[in-house]
């Protein structure tokens, strides 16, 4: 199965790395894995097109993928102003008051508010797919399950594979029935959007359900070669890793990430919380004073997606701009407790592979 996945994706090692950084994604691909670039931060398709041009030139001809956020059902989307009008005033007041209490400064005069919500809209995600199809992308992954069938068919028509995340075995079956080529079994301990079932339980359930039809990648709580070996032992064809790349040297090239890395390096495996405050859907975040404020008595319930995105978009921009590690709003999994050093992607990959091989040898000695 390990060889099958590598042959299918055209990679050397059974490790797929999701990241919002093109620098990290390119480095993962150069190191023999498959770097998958998260596209949700790109509101402008032309900006994504330029970044994928950079990826084309900086992956040494090795394959890479992209990750979009696209619900299977097309939602009703009004103009941005319509979405703004749906935000309750009390929610806006809570965010304003909380930022003031946390000491998060206003944006500098003249700095444009970024409409960070757009990347979460279905129509924008479709534009991301349009851009990706103009590049030598190997894989399109969807963070919200299987994309619409017409998107899957378009990807297949261009020779691309489609991956989808699943938090239950029945979700995986639906993905494959719709034409998805690779299922990512993402456990409860993973960062970002995640379900209720832990990786150790979920992976064999999904492998049993669809593993005879498509490769299954294990995700959630993976941050060592031993854990990659465990994923293979559970029947997965490889590992999907996201959080572990957040403390790499290459990730520092995104402006404002120094405070985020400082917070991640200091965190333990119990310093995360699963909450709807980030997007409106349950997602695991680093536990900070910002997340604490939302769980305090009197805090409002988070709004559904995409309204919660609209509500906190400027807040996230201000938090990033403040460079305060105690208030960062960052998706990360429980594996954060292993993320104790800033290292280049190539070194991280080398250590993962060395420990993977050592673990497989040790296990073979037990026979």
From TrEMBL:
This is NAD(P)H-dependent flavin oxidoreductase YrpB (Nitropropane dioxygenase family). Keywords: Dioxygenase, Flavoprotein, FMN, Oxidoreductase. It holds the Pfam family NMO. CDD domains: NPD_like (cd04730). InterPro entries: Aldolase_TIM, NMO. GO terms for molecular function: dioxygenase activity; nitronate monooxygenase activity. PANTHER family: 2-NITROPROPANE DIOXYGENASE, MONOOXYGENASE RV1533-RELATED. It comes from the Bacteria.
